[in-house]
């Protein structure tokens, strides 16, 4: 566990640093930075100082090229012992290379020890894990990389669904835009709900997004799985209302039931039943958002059998009821 973070007097501007590296994901940097800047705007009364000062830092203060191709300026890494309120580590394609830089990892470990709290955005969790800052803590990263994070760092308790996780002085967030959700939560912790809500309204985002990141990965994870089941998944999306028994699926795949179960789980990490449930919830989401069909008809069309079955599956995978989802996202 990291040492107990120092206490920063609440009446002083809170210093926020965002650590970046070559091939960083630009929105991992811009999202949190804009949230804290908007919080300064929300609390600008003319006399009181802004609650946050924000710095983007990188080794040697080099110009950083993001994966989008945009190049931006940074400041040099400060003395790791300087007092700091919040350290945020961005993610991106370059994070694995950054995690192999022992000087950067050592600086990160020391800097986190001087900070009141430390956070990661998206795959920035790999840098925190490499520095040992996530050992024996709950953490999350982008849904595509949760399995890899768990495999590489078995001491980390990876929770793949939340938009962000708060465990002691360490925070972590899911993919890309989740850095905005995380930063809004940090602002709410510091300045209260009213200011955080004002920032969310200004940025036209939810203060607390409904559901977890599973809602964005249900069908996508199957589409990116082993190509040997691509045709089967395409067929399933067109026949969700049918009786999709194991025997019928195995026959379609040209395998015995036992072989099909084993190979399907190896390719997707799911049982066929769980995969079908996700596809059915995905289809229900689309119908709830884009049509006025009653829930009973949607449940039947998607193969749930009953509204109650759809409600239970929806709540388990999305974190909200079908009715609440339609109220939030329906056209």
Describe this structure in words.
This protein is an alpha/beta fold. The chain contains 15 helices and 11 strands. The protein has helices spanning 26-42, 95-98, 102-114, 125-130, 146-152, 178-191, 193-203, 214-223, 230-238, 246-253, 257-268, 272-290, 295-301, 307-318, 322-329, and strands spanning 14-19, 52-58, 64-65, 71-72, 75-76, 84-89, 115-120, 138-139, 157-158, 164-167, 170-173. The strands form 3 sheets. The chain has a 7-stranded mixed β-sheet. Strand 8, helix 5 and strand 9 (157-158) form a beta-alpha-beta unit. It starts with 13 loop residues before the first strand and ends with a helix. The relative contact order is 0.10.
How are strands sequenced across the largest beta sheet? 5-2-1-6-7-11-10
Main pleated-sheet profile = 7 strands, mixed
| Topology, number of strands | 11
Give, in order, the helices and strands: EHEEEEEHHEHEHEEEHHHHHHHHHH
Helix content: 40-55%
Report the mean per-residue pLDDT as an integer. Answer: 89
Strand proportion, as a percent range, falls in 5-15%
Key attributes of the depicted protein:
331 residues, seven-stranded mixed sheet, globular, 11 strands, disordered N terminus, two-stranded antiparallel sheet, alpha/beta, 15 helices
Which helices and strands occur, and which strands form pairs?
Blueprint: E1 14-19, H1 26-42, E2 52-58, E3 64-65, E4 71-72, E5 75-76, E6 84-89, H2 95-98, H3 102-114, E7 115-120, H4 125-130, E8 138-139, H5 146-152, E9 157-158, E10 164-167, E11 170-173, H6 178-191, H7 193-203, H8 214-223, H9 230-238, H10 246-253, H11 257-268, H12 272-290, H13 295-301, H14 307-318, H15 322-329
Parallel strand pairs: 1-2, 1-6, 2-5, 6-7, 7-11, 8-9
Antiparallel strand pairs: 3-4, 10-11
